[in-house]
Recover the amino acids of this structure.
């Protein structure tokens, strides 16, 4: 008998470190899951839609967000440890630049239509948090997209397309209207909500117990209302 597919919608932002951790933990769960096939779809979110196009350097960004650089040390240590356990290298060095992620979501939107959104999501996260690439630079984005067969003209065209930008913003608004205020957020079969970068065991339990009962689990996440990760 054919097993019904389990649907997982993931709402996340490239600028969210816990989204990186959550992605890896979900993937770990998927490798361990022996039940029905799981279909994962990624959806956009912007923690800071007002981020200037030129971006903000590490110290300015962290000072604006937390008021005190010393307060961030414990948080970055926690992230670094959590990342290392999932094979992620978090690099918050002085070359790190916070950027507006709307253009990245536009590229991911089209990548989804072409079948490589998951791969591009991983690539952007690594570029942002490990390689410290400045993802607001056209030449940087063109170089990354060339890894997937795009030329610079196509990359530039997608970023400049207002219709694609509108579609991304509408999708973000849709999930905000559903009550998503922090990411990562995982929606299983349109009824089971998992908030934050939960351990793989939580996803496995959710897959096994999908039911009409709405459940919400809380884990590490980035909140757009408080600005805290």
């Amino acid at each position: 008998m054919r097993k019904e597919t389990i649907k997982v919608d993931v709402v996340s932002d490239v600028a969210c470190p816990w989204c990186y951790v959550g992605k890896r933990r979900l993937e770990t769960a998927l490798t361990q899951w022996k039940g029905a096939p799981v279909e994962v779809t990624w959806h956009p979110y912007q923690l800071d839609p007002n981020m200037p196009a030129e971006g903000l350097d590490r110290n300015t960004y962290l000072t604006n967000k937390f008021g005190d650089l010393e307060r961030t040390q414990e948080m970055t240590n926690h992230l670094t440890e959590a990342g290392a356990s999932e094979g992620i290298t978090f690099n918050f060095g002085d070359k790190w630049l916070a950027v507006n992620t709307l253009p990245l979501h536009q590229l991911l939107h089209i990548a989804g239509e072409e079948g490589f959104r998951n791969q591009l999501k991983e690539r952007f996260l690594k570029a942002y948090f490990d390689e410290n690439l400045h993802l607001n630079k056209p030449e940087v984005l063109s170089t990354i997209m060339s890894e997937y067969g795009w030329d610079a003209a196509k990359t530039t065209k997608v970023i400049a397309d207002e219709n694609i930008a509108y579609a991304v913003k509408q999708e973000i608004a849709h999930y905000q209207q559903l009550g998503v205020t922090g990411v990562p957020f995982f929606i299983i079969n349109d009824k089971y909500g998992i908030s934050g970068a939960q351990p793989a065991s939580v996803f496995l339990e959710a897959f096994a117990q999908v039911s009409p009962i709405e459940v919400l689990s809380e884990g590490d996440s980035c909140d757009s209302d408080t600005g805290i990760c």
